[in-house]
Amino acid sequence: MQQLDPDPQSIAAELPKLSLIYEKHPLYQVDLFISGKEGASDLELLRQNGVTTVVNCAVNLDFNYVRRAGLVSDHEGSAYGPGEIRYYKIGLIDGSGNPDTQMVAAYFILRAALEQVLPEKPSYPRRERGNVLVNCRGGRSRSVIVMALFLHLTLPSQFTTLDAAIAHIREHRRLSRAEWYKAPKPVLIEAAARAADWIRLIEGVR
Q1: Which residues neighbour 4 within 8 Å (Cβ) at sequence distance 6 or greater?
Q2: Contacts by 17-20, CB closer than 8 A, 24 or more apart
Q3: Which of 32, 104, 105, 121 has the fewest Cβ atoms surrounding its Cβ within 10 A?
Q4: Which of 88, 65, 107, 91 is nearest to 195 (CA)?
């Protein structure tokens, strides 16, 4: 029997605008969130939750966090400048088409968002270290698999398998069971499983 997709608008309406996925990651002492475009674009909501850094997993979605271009002297009067949020971009397709190495890069970009230390220079005004949001368009597939890969590899005693990390995120993101078969997409789960093996080799973990 053909599986009918649930109405995407009704599912999106049921999801929280911002979901706390993991509180106080022991390695970084920050909270980790997931959202879709609605949560990631709400600066006030991000501030209320102590989010200082956004990692955008979607290639078909961008945000303009620049509110004060003149905050850096040589940006005055321009259409660019430091944003209100530190912003990292991975740019995954929600399905096939991503190079296998891109999922490896996604893991290391998220790590960089948590570990990068910016210099004490006027051209780097956003040095605050706070909570981190991982987003995609709906907060149901790309952001879920990137976060799952990260939790599985950084907290292996708690998330012994990638599937365990996905199950945790589905629960905390309140993903409808009716769409688990595509949240996240199977091709992304397969890519993350391959990436996990490569990352262990890179990091010397067996």
Answers
A1: none
A2: 17/42, 17/45, 18/42, 18/45, 18/46, 18/49, 18/133, 19/139, 19/172, 19/173, 19/174, 20/49, 20/172
A3: 121
A4: 107
Residue 11 lies in a domain: no
What does the block give as tokens for 15? 């999801």
139 contact partners, CB below 8 Å, separation of at least 6: 15, 19, 34, 35, 36, 39, 173
How many domains are there within the chain?
A: 1
In angstroms, the CA 9 to CA 129 distance is 34
The SS3 call for residue 87 is: strand
Provide the b/e sequence for 151-166 (b: ≥16 CB within 10 Å): bbbbbeeebeebebbb
- Classify residue 9: in a domain, yes or no: no
Chunked mean pLDDT (size 10), the chain, 206 residues: 49 83 97 97 96 96 74 61 82 96 97 89 75 98 98 98 98 96 97 98 86
105: domain CATH number is 3.90.190.10
C-alpha to C-alpha distances, 85 to 53, 56, 65, 89, nearest whole angstrom: 6, 12, 6, 12
Quick check: 126 and 46 in contact, CB under 8 A?
A: no
> If you ran DSSP here, which 8-state letter would residue 95 be given?
S
Instruction: Please give the pLDDT value at position 85.
Output: 86
Containing domain of residue 24, as a range?
Answer: 20-203
Cis peptide before 184 (omega within 30 of 0): yes
The whole-model pTM stands at 0.89
